[in-house]
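Thread: quick sanity check before group meeting

JM: Hey all, I'm pulling together slides for Thursday and realized we never actually wrote out the predicted structure for the chain we discussed last week. Dropping the sequence here so it's in one place. If anyone has concerns about the input, flag it before I start.
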Amino acid sequence: HNIPGIPKTGAGALKLTGCLIAKIFKREIKTWDDAEIKALNPDLDVPASQNILVYHRVKGSSTTGGVTTYLHAVCPSVWPGSLVGKEITWESDTFEAEGSGGMSSKIASTPYAIGYIDSGHGHDDGLAEISLENKFGKYQTSLEAGATGIGEAAAQAIGANVMPSSPLADFSAVSLHNMNGEQTWPIVAISYVYVRKDLTTLGDRACLLKAFLEFIISDAGQSLLPAYGAVGVPSAVKDIAQKAIDALVMPVCTEWSFEDSTIKGGGQSDYMISVKRRDFSEYDRSRLEASIPGSDSDNEVTTLQATVLSLQGEVAKLTEDLRKVQEASHDEHEEGGGDDDGPMPLVAIIISILAILVSTISMLATVCVVQQSRKKEEARQMPPTIYGTQAVVGTPANEPGSGGASSATEPMKNQT
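JM (edit): ok, ran it. Output follows.
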């Protein structure tokens, strides 16, 4: 939200219940000084009858789907099932925002606005959060709930049989909204990737796929999640994921290994995914850079380019000097003056120009080689993206009769 003067989180943050948010989004509550809001926030200082500007996502939005699912779960009397989905009909006096970036921009630039966005974007953009009441009755922001409170939603779901403990079960209806627990954040999303249980037709690729799934739930894989605005899953969910991976029917293929730190004598082995491994193009580029005198970093390429520009300036100056000497020599010959030493300065200047030109061409060639090598390398390599949290074996709801293993391709996300 964007109520001026309200802390982003912690003491003094704006308190709301799920039902109050439902009423605000349905425009049953239209002003910030409404009696129900003031009852929870007696110190709230806003202009009299200040309109609440409600922003919502347009087009199909998984965030809209998550928030509307939560509102129906926490307050079905106000928010009916007909208003649950990725795209719903909003009240005519609400406002549209396209994408997470658009929502963040609208809230940040509009005083007294309210909207919803995944916490990763909201935290990065410094938006103020609602201190939301959870099922236990505790008011907190997602920042206060932290990774523990977000992960607790999954643990509580397993305990309540909302999330199956067997990877062979159907996960299509799993919802982690409004779960029990004192610290639990009430709006949490988790998603999966479905992989067929029988991987025998994939050949060698099956072992690579299995290695990817195992990396996702490993400590190394989970540690990457905060960089993507998400948190890892609790051990109970990892156990389900591992059961799913163990249940995969594999062909005869060579298993892959990971090198997180140096494995002497093994880091360059076949079927090894290593953070230390270098391909030839990377090695060749560094070799070329090292061959440039005084070059010890990428910054040296920039320095070299500046040197080339400077040399080009010197060439231009010498060319102008040569022109002036030629004109002077021509004038002396016309006047019958001069001596036998006249051509010598001319020859010296020409030799200087040729030497600088050769040096410039050589440096330009080196720069071009280094830059082309770097561009090829950048085009060839895609940045690694690690998602998700859980693997399960089961049947996707939209693929009747097809057996599959499922593994989360996105991390658990809390939405605010």
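AS: nice. The chain is about 45% helix and 10% strand. The chain has a mean pLDDT of 79.
JM: adding both to the slides.
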